[in-house]
Write a structure and sequence with these properties.
The protein is mainly beta and about 375 residues long. The chain has 1 helix and 28 strands. The chain has a 4-stranded antiparallel beta sheet with strand order 3-2-1-28, with no helix packed on it. The protein has a 4-stranded antiparallel beta sheet with strand order 4-5-6-7, with no helix packed on it. The chain has a 4-stranded antiparallel beta sheet with strand order 8-9-10-11, with no helix packed on it.
């Protein structure tokens, strides 16, 4: 009898361990993940793109708007926006599926747009009219640059981190920042009147000092007028153009980044446009505008298709790196639409929490 009881106890223990292992396996973060913010629940959903199931939800603080993943896919960073009320970035361990301590940006209020380049988190600080970068290695903000524009909202940083593009919603402008080697400003001031020239230095005259520049040299800024409500934008995969969705005008501004000027204004009928993303091959531009997803052919700059998907509140767009599918958040409908980019049809919906918006892709290395 004792042997039977012991045997049964062992069997139940093995069964319990097997069930626990199955549950753990089902909730493990996949190597490739879709990340979705819920602004209402203040959570980040980790979604398995293979089956569109949410494997975890992690708290991310007040008013989360945008999310970006680190290059190694282990960490996500979330901007806590609040129209300038908040000044933090939330940090999520994607492998452990838990929140880390918030990053306090101090006076850099209203963080919104995010990018992750050269091991740094690049962000806009809308209320401070500035952008900056946070170095996870040192645990500090290591660079700040003012734009002087109203509502600097979204940001794109080139892979070498030597060119940056931002949209400035209320100024109806785009800012291009380009890295310049050498110290900031002009040459150091000359000697005072009557002083000896460098070649005639007297015994008591110290040699002129070379004034240090800021870390990494100076930056040249170009401000380009575009349409009203310039918000969502993307840089083409070849790095030659930026397409900007002007929410208040319903137009798209096409910018030649080498010439630093608008070369075309497309009458896209995209009022309320929120985000714009290129397909990885550069053939399509996708725009979320209220209840619709608008698809433009980049070569002809003409509309290919207009999908009526939700009832309103179109938000974040993400295109898979392989170009097979796009994900579009519809905040008022509380789902993320999955769009097949070959057929241009909706093939699924994801419930990642109410009022979804910011999206990101994470690949664990």
């Amino acid at each position: 009898m004792e042997v039977r009881i012991a045997s049964r106890a062992v069997s139940l223990t093995i069964l319990a361990l097997s069930v626990s292992a199955m549950i753990a396996a089902q909730s493990t973060t996949p190597k490739t993940s879709l990340l979705v913010l819920s602004k209402q629940d203040h959570t980040l959903a980790i979604v398995d793109p293979a089956n569109l199931h949410v494997v975890a939800r992690v708290p991310v603080g007040d008013d989360p708007h945008e999310v970006v993943a680190s290059t190694d896919g282990h960490t996500a960073y979330v901007s806590n926006y609040g129209f300038g009320t908040f000044h933090t970035l939330a940090v999520v361990d994607l492998v452990g599926q838990h929140e880390e301590p918030l990053i306090d940006l101090g006076a850099l209020r209203g963080p919104h747009g995010l990018d992750f380049v050269q091991g740094k988190v690049w962000f806009t600080a809308e209320a401070a009219k500035a952008i900056g970068s946070y170095d996870p290695g040192s645990g500090s903000v290591n660079w700040i640059m003012g734009t002087g524009e109203n509502r600097t909202h979204m940001i794109y940083v080139f892979p070498d981190a030597k060119k940056i593009v931002t949209t400035n919603v209320s100024s109806a402008t785009v800012t291009i920042l380009e890295h310049a080697e050498g110290p900031a400003g002009g040459p150091p001031p000359g000697p005072p009147p009557g002083a000896a020239s460098p070649g005639q230095q007297g015994a008591g005259m110290p040699p002129p000092r070379r004034m240090p520049g800021p870390p990494g040299g100076d930056w040249n800024e170009t401000v380009i007028p575009v349409g009203h409500g310039s918000e969502g934008f993307d840089v083409s995969p070849d790095g030659k153009q930026a397409w900007v969705a002007n929410a208040w005008d319903g137009t798209i501004s096409v910018i030649d980044l080498a010439q630093k000027k608008v070369t075309a204004t497309l009458q896209a009928n995209a009022r309320g446009a929120n985000r714009l993303k290129f397909s990885p091959d550069g053939t399509m531009a996708l725009i979320s505008a209220e209840s619709e997803l608008i698809v433009l052919d980049v070569a002809t700059q003409k509309e290919t298709k207009r999908l009526k998907i939700g009832t309103g509140g179109g938000g974040g767009i993400l295109v898979q790196p392989d170009g097979a599918r796009a994900y579009v958040a519809f905040a008022e409908d509380n789902f993320v639409a999955v769009v097949d980019l070959k057929t241009l049809e909706v093939v699924g919906k994801i419930d990642a929490g109410p009022n979804p918006d910011g999206l990101a892709w994470a690949v664990r290395q």
